[in-house]
Amino acid sequence: MKNSQKKNTIFILFGLFLNIISTYSQNNSNTISIHNLFDKTVENENLPIFNGPRYINYYRSLDNTHCYYISGNFISGDLNYQNQSYYNVDLKYDINNDVLVLKPIGKFDYLGISLIKDNVGSFKIYDKQFININFNNPSCPAFMNGYYQEIIFSKDNILYIKHHKNRTKVIDNKSIAEGSNQSTTDSFIEKNEFVLKYKNAYYKIASKNDVIKIFPEYKSKIKDFYSNNDQLEESDNKVFIENLIKEINNFLVPESN
Question: What is the structure's pLDDT at 30?
Answer without folding.
Answer: 53
